[in-house]
Amino acid sequence: MPRIPDHREIAATAARAATSVPGVAALTSRPADRLRPPAAPGVRIQSRDAATRTDLEISLAVRMGHPATAVARQVRVAVIESLHADHPRVWATDVTVSVTVTAIV
Question: Is the pTM of this model over 0.85?
Answer without folding.
Answer: yes
